[in-house]
Amino acid sequence: MVVRVIATGAAPTPAELAELEESARDRADEQVPLGAVLDAYQIGAREWLRIVNGLDGGGGAFAEGTLAEIGDRVFRWLRSATGAVIAGYDVDNGIGAPDPRPGHVELLDALLAGDDHTAAADRFHLTVADQYWAVAVTVDPSSDETDDGVSHTVAAARKARRLRRQLDGIGRGEALYSVTACGGVALVPLRSRPATTEADEFGELKGRLEQLAQRMGVRTTCAVDLVRTEEIPSVIPQLQDLVAIARRKSTHRPVVRFDDLAVEFQLSRPTRATRLNAARLDPIADDPVLWRTLETYLDSECNSTSTAESLHVHPNTVQYRLRKISDLTGLNLSRPVDVLTALGAVLAANDRRRVADEDPAR
Predict the structure, then answer these.
(1) 317, 308 in Cβ contact below 8 A?
(2) 186 pLDDT higher than 80
(3) Could you tell me which residues are beta bridge partners of residue 134?
(4) String of b and e for 3-15 (b: at least 16 CB within 10 Å)?
(5) String of DSSP letters for 177-217
(6) What domains can you pick out in the chain, each with its CATH number?
């Protein structure tokens, strides 16, 4: 970019500046001081001028222009780069990646536990909202977290700070959250504004949450519900279950509420029959093709054509696999009651696998 600007005199393109801004955002996530980053660009500009001066044979002119003109171009690039760096650090009105504000952690802990939160609120002069948007969020692994050439600890910390910064922007500095690189939970105060409804407020929140994936650079999934303060301890665990269900769906939805997955959520509730229900699918548990076909078929509202399109196979192939599933499990997927049984069994089996992955000793 610098060579092109010096050679042609053209300003950096929006794409080039966006790349600089993204780089600055990464440095902010790594908590590199803004002054150090700007100093690096100043040194770079000085080095370019030193190189150009070294090439000057005394005439003070080059094919690209006079020495003064080239110097002007270098400083034009520096001005553009400086603006991009500051924009990267100042994204979402927060310099760098701020830690939770004083008292936010204590207040969140009290709200999640259902304890008396007034002491924490009074101590730190915080206002407790009557209602909050409770959010459970999951964040898929980034390429840096799986790249052996990058420190996984640094990559995870950078991603967690980026998520905190995004939640600060969404909550306008008032959100309470507890997150890691994999996601977490947040409470965003409901802002009561004249001439707005709950649907309006949710629409705005949903739009911001849907942008998380773009800002984070990986897929994100959020489960949301509007809760009163006393409901927080009971609703947050349910939202974590809901977001786990949404994340496993073959058709991804970045933001879900309970009414979006009401049947799936209800069928996923643990009962004495859960283990027996999950066992109905043991005959196909080790067959990834049949398992994926069944999951996709259920997610596609039992439509074979849509299932075939999602799996990139012929509809006849789907029908063959469904017949094989029926033969192995005894479930007739053309009967509504067996479809519900299959859906509950898939949810129960997936939950059993998730628990096993989290605790291999179990």
Answers:
(1) yes
(2) yes
(3) 187, 225
(4) eebbeeeeebeee
(5) EEEETTEEEEEEE----TT--HHHHHHHHHHHHHTHHHHHT
(6) 2-93 (no CATH), 104-260 (3.30.70.270), 270-358 (1.10.10.2840)
Select from 104, 135, 134 the least CA-distant residue to 120: 104
Beta bridge partners of 136: 185, 223
123/133 Cα distance (integer angstroms): 24
Give the per-residue pLDDT at 362. Answer: 43
Among candidate residues 168, 9, 27, 174, the one with its CA nearest the CA of residue 80: 9
Q: Kindly state the tokens that stand for 200.
A: 């309006």
Q: Are 103 and 126 in contact (CB under 8 A)?
A: yes
Give the pLDDT confidence of 240-251 residue by residue, as tens digits. 999 999 998 878
A 10 A CB-CB count for 127 gives 8
Cβ 165 vs Cβ 94: under 8 Å: yes
Give the list of residues 6+ apart from residue 176 with CB closer than 8 angstroms, or none. 100, 104, 107, 108, 111, 132, 186, 187
Task: Supply the Cα-derived Rg of the chain in whole angstroms.
Answer: 27
Residue 276 tokens, joined: 């027996």
HSE (CB half, 13 Å, CA atoms) of 145?
13
Q: How far separated are the first and last CA of the chain, in Å rounded?
A: 55
Band of residue 331 on the pLDDT scale cut at 50, 70, 90: very high
